[in-house]
Amino acid sequence: MSVWARFAQPSRLVWAADDAAGHRAIDAIARAASTLLSAAGPRPGEEPLALWRRAFALTYSAELRAERTGRASSVVDLEPERYQRFTAPALAAAARMRPHSSWAWRRIEGKTLSVVRLAKASLTFAGGADYIAWKINRHAGTDIELKPWQRRHPLLAGLSLLPRLLRSGAVR
Prior knowledge:
Distance between the termini: 16 Å
C-alpha cells in the first residue's frame, strides 16, 4: 500500500546494478500509479485531483502515520498538473487490473507491518528509538523526550508511548 503511494509520487532512479535492473525498476515504478488508483476504486464523475487525494488518504490510513491531517492533499497540491496528466493513462492501465482486498483489511495489515518495521528499526540501528521519536516529533508536532530506560528498551518504550500517541492523535 505505502509503496504504491510512494512511487506514484515523483521519483527518480539514481542507481541500478545494470541496464536490465534499471528497466525492471522503471517498469515496476511505472505501475505504481495505476495500482494505487485501481486499489482506490475510482468513482464515476470523480475529479482527478480528488481521486488522487482520496487514494493517498486511503494508503496513509493503512499505516501508522505521524503526519498531520491533510498530508494526502498537500502531496497532490505540490504538483496538481502532474497528477492531472497522469490520471487518464493510470486509469486506463488500472481498468485492466483485478480488484484488491478491502481497505479495512489493508488497514489492519498495514498498521501491523508498520509496528513490526518500527520494532525492527528500533532494535537494528544505534539510536533507532531516538530516530523514531524525532520523526514523530517532526511530523506530528509533539515533544517526545525519551528517558534512558526507553533508549535501552525501545520495544517497551514503544508499547508505553503508543496509547498516548494514539489518544492525542499524534499517530493514526
